[in-house]
Write a structure and sequence with these properties.
InterPro entries: CBR1-like (IPR045313), NAD(P)-bd_dom_sf (IPR036291), SDR_fam (IPR002347)
Order of helices and strands: EHEHEHEHEHEHEE
Number of helices: 6
Protein name: SDR family oxidoreductase
Organism: Brevibacillus brevis (Bacillus brevis)
CATH topology: Rossmann fold
CATH class: Alpha Beta
Helix content: 40-55%
Structural class: alpha/beta
Bound molecules: NADPH dihydro-nicotinamide-adenine-dinucleotide phosphate
Largest sheet: 8 strands, mixed
Shape: globular
Strand order of the largest sheet: 3-2-1-4-5-6-7-8
Family: Belongs to the short-chain dehydrogenases/reductases (SDR) family.
Number of domains: 1
Keywords: NADP, Oxidoreductase
Distance between the termini: 38 Å
CATH architecture: 3-Layer(aba) Sandwich
Number of strands: 8
């Protein structure tokens, strides 16, 4: 990679929407670091993309483990000295059909650990790499399920709360950061992945569009907003 080439990092980049994001960001000229908790799967995914002449490398990162995130941030800083785009994509959906009050508390804990605390620690460790260059774009892959209006309906409680917290984090960090650093949340829609299932209407490629757009917005672009299909949506 050249010295002035921008660097993007995608968590959970080994499959689903994350894998497509790695591909699309590389096609847009980024050097993309594909982060994956499974080194074998992650390396293989990065290699497959590199074999198609895409500028992709791999770093190990389990977002449930702050030590692993810290180590990844050290590795990235040593190798590249910068991160211009950070996509918090890694996520889980482990709710069953029970209501929040009837399900095992471990389901909420596990979901919060990945979908909320994972993104929180990733931002905490990677924001300094953006702050030192006064530039950065952070995109949190959220869900419409995290909108406050969704709390009026029962079900999917752990997932909803985790994305509600992620949305709150987006807004709060946006209010705290300075310089040309922007953070936004996006609902990718219902997407045909392992999580979304085979009946979902959107392809990962279609889902990646608005995420890549937010990763590349200019200095006058939005900060601390929630998007769906390229348009602002209510929290
Ligand atoms: P998939 O289940 O297809 O992929 C999830 C990705 O997250 C995998 O790469 C997985 O890694 C990774 N991941 C899970 N836990 C961890 C962890 N602890 N550390 C590192 N990586 C982890 O999901 P999608 O691609 O569909 O979803 C991507 C994002 O989009 C999620 O945040 C999801 O909530 C959101 N979203 C998806 C929708 C959909 O319809 N698909 C709808 C709305 C939002 P591994 O392979 O190791 O398990």
């Amino acid at each position: 990679m050249s010295m002035d080439q921008k660097v993007a990092l995608v968590t959970g980049g080994n499959r689903g929407i994350g894998y497509e994001l790695v591909k699309q960001l590389a096609l847009n000229g980024f050097h993309v670091i594909l982060a994956s908790r499974d080194p074998e799967m992650g390396r293989r995914a990065a290699q497959t993309l590199a074999e198609s002449n895409l500028d992709v490398s791999f770093v190990g990162m389990d977002v449930d483990d702050p030590k692993s995130i810290r180590q990844a941030s050290i590795t990235v800083n040593e190798r590249f000295g910068r991160v211009d785009v950070l996509i918090n994509n890694a996520g889980v959906y482990v709710d069953g059909n029970e209501t929040l009050m009837n399900q095992e508390p471990s389901i909420l804990e596990k979901t919060m650990a990945t979908n909320f605390f994972g993104a929180y620690h990733v931002i905490r460790y990677f924001l300094p790499l953006m702050e030192k260059q006064g530039y950065g774009r952070i995109v949190n892959v959220s869900s419409e399920y995290g909108a406050m209006r969704e709390m009026s309906y029962p079900g999917v409680g752990a997932y909803k709360l985790s994305k509600l917290a992620l949305n709150g984090l987006t807004r709060l960090v946006a209010a705290e950061i300075a310089g040309d650093i922007k953070i936004n949340a996006v609902d990718p829609g219902w997407v045909r992945t392992d999580m979304g299932g085979p009946s979902a209407p959107k392809t990962p490629r279609q889902a990646a569009e608005s995420i890549v757009w937010l990763a590349m917005i200019g200095p006058d672009g939005p900060n601390g907003e929630f998007f769906k299909d390229g348009k602002r949506t209510d929290w």
